[in-house]
Amino acid sequence: MYEVLAGRPPFKGKDVLETLAQVRKKEPVRPRTVCPAVDRDLETICLTCLAKDPARRYGSAEALADDLDRWVRREPIAARPVGRAERATKWVSRNPLVTALAGTSILLLLAAFGGLVVLGYSRTLAEKNHELEIANA
Q: pTM for this structure?
């Protein structure tokens, strides 16, 4: 997975022994460092698979498959907790029609409210002008 994302293996030494030493001692370079176009969540999934500490890796192939399915569906992945803003952004990208309808509805409501405010203000001005005309007459 790392090689597909980054275009190179995570560890590469002069020979097998050096490569194995890198696997034991070094952390892999983040795939986005090598290829900035890599999606952040996909990078997280990949690096979770390569974690040195077994407790930080996926507990099973099923857990990995679940996270990959979440990534495909543009849902938050289990390997990286997300905040409200990112969760909302992912929801919007999964539901563009609902988002467009809600946005249009909000804009129409704001326009109607603005129209009512302008109408009320112009009515107040008209009443004051009328009072001034009566007072000047």
A: 0.62
